[in-house]
Amino acid sequence: MESPTALIQQTIAGFQTSSDLSAIARIQDGFHDIAESRERRRDETRLALKELSRALALEKSTYDSLVNSPSREEHASSMLAADRQKFSLAKSINDVESELQSEEAKLQRLKDELIALEQEDPSDDSSAKAAADNIAVLKLRVYRSLGIDLEEDGAGGFAKAHIRTLDNKDVRPLNIENKYGKYFSANNFWDFLSL
To answer: Nearest-CA neighbor of 97 among 158, 66, 52, 33?
Structure first.
């Protein structure tokens, strides 16, 4: 029969968290890449909108200078040209605005996905409580496999332990007192187990 120390070391070695940690790192990298891509697209769209606004302002100033020109024929032809350019710019602005709305919809969808993913995050309170419960269950299983049965005190802790000898013929009770600390209690467990 193996010693309790060897059993605990084998149990600890059985928990491999590296794959979980790498999966979390990949998810965080993915979030980072999505956020950067979204920012780039928004910046490009804003830049295009600024360029179109400048072009519109230039066309308006051109239009104003043509309106103030003395010739009626030149004025009429320049008005037609300005109207064409205005409609062309309005169409371009409309296209940019629809693209911006599309990008904002994508941004909202990504935000919703991020919120959903954050709700599934293991650091979430409900997940943390479930993980804490799983840890407690695992500890109890390890204790029971070592021949230790814990008796709850009703306040979420343990008041007494019943320790079986290796041959399961003798059961010794041990009071667990929180005033001495976990290290003291652990030493008492090992002392009783080795008797």
So the answer is: 52
